[in-house]
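Example record

One chain of 630 residues, shown exactly as stored in the release files.
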Amino acid sequence: MRRPRTEDLPYLLQKETRTVGANLIKFKALGDGADARTILSRLDEVISVKDFGAVGDGYTDDYQSIQNALYASVDNSVVCYIPGGNYVVGTPIKVPDNSRIIGEGYLSHLLVDITNPKNIFTSEFQTTALMDNVVIGRLRLDGQRKNRNIIIPATRTRANALIDVGQSPSLVTGYGTNLWLFELWLQESIHFHISVEGMAGIHIWECYISGDGFDADGANYIGNTDGIHLVNCRDFIVDSCEIHTGDDMVAMTNDVNGCIRGNINNITGSSGYGNGVACVADATGTSGDIYDINISNISFTVSRAADDTGNAVRIRKTGTGTGTVHDVNISNVCAKGSATAAAIQGLAIMGRVAAEPVYDIACSNIQVENSRGHGIYVYEADDILLSNIRTKGSGQAAGNFNGIHLENCNRVVINNAICRSDDDCGLYATTCGWLRMDNVLVWGALTAGNKAGIYLDTCTLTEVGPGCFVTDGAGNVTQYGLVTAGTCSGVIHAKHQAFTCATGGVGVLNIDNAGKLFTSPGQPIVWCRFTDSGAAATLGDTEGIASITRTAQGDYTFVYNTNLTLYAVANAAPYLVTGSGNTGVNNADVVCKPVTHSAGSVRVKFTDGAGALAAVTEGFIQIFGMIDTA
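Predicted structure tokens for this chain:
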């Protein structure tokens, strides 16, 4: 044991005094079963910052008092308690390992010194050692940006975050462990409100964060005023927070290590400039991936009309580094704006270039309403699942915005979706391959122009499966149901007749430039039943056939619905037209043979074994195959 020094004398006298007095007085908590103990043992459970001279009057700089109390609490393995009051912090409080800092909730108010804005809490050895085992809770932290009326600088640093903990992996190898932040009120930071870097085992829950991120004149939002910002972190949970910020509500970015194994759950709030939840690989050089992330139960709105450039959830690679974003699960997201104030996209999934996509992203139960741009935007992304999707009112800002927009993507599955655009197409895909759509109800803008329910441009190996309809709810959509353009190939659709259009519209349009439209195996393009009385033919049950014209018994022309255009090909090939006829004598010898085919009709003859027209009394035809107008 070291010899006491002169400067230790006041502390030793204080300890002796309290030992003599407080050790003689007994204390017993209210309630049955409570044990009596000394006042001294009760007081030793916590160390209050007021024991070290903190005033909490809103004017006095209490930094040193709080710092001394915190060091003493760590040395004695007890809680550092900050009672109700307004504590000005002129210098960042250094948080050592094994800190436990607890207040009285909203009443325990720590304010940045308006003359010297810095962190309120920061790691003790941020650039030289890892930080472990820190708990901060039940406090109100105030950046006082509005009181200072300062302009948010164009270049911010972590030194301006209210809580800035952890360490850069470029400076310190490894991860700090065990960070708990809970029941915090954070407001008006000029940078991130909570910034965590290089930590593992992070729990952040039940925090309220507010900071509009306006510039000095209140005209524009400024970036990097995130609510919670995580860099190079792993094994983290952010849960049950309400966040209203100028930039991202919650953001994950990468550097050397990336962000790994995270859960962002039950987040509600708004952003003026940024996103609800963002996973952004923005590093340069050798960098880690962001992966194994679960994002669920997100409610996102916008703060105001100006500068609304964000998304409810953004998955993106922007940096030139090696790291990207993959293996992300997104579920239960509600993004809502208004006709004049809304997110640019409700959900955005974006790679950087074709060789650097984001991939393996699963999205379910997504609702986007009144977005200024695309409801859902997917760009340079592979292996994407979109299920249980509803987009409504996309394209509130004119500019060819779609309910779902896919660009330069591969292996995308969309099922159980309702997609509507007020500006352009319900579902638009360009330069995509291996797309599959099932149980999709889509419609484009009810305005003039080339609006379509589904528009495929230069897409390959795409299947528009059963249950895909194009409608406005009343059975109509302006202009076109399904449009293909560019050099589409291998496009399959099971039931063309599902494409309904307004008067004068076309169900299937522009199968051109070597475009091909196949039917799925076992699914005809059109079919019908008919009867022949010997004097006239009558159309029965049908899909895709509008009328039947009888040239003779056994010789018929079937006219397609006006909302279905099948383009002519030589000798009816490569169509497969099959059928059967009942002559009442010998049905086995009746042969169905297509004779001519045009864009709007097909002529079919039923013949007997000798090649003569058969006296058909009832019959059935169906058409399989593909359309090829090259």
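Notes: Residues 51 and 69 are 7 Å apart (CA to CA).
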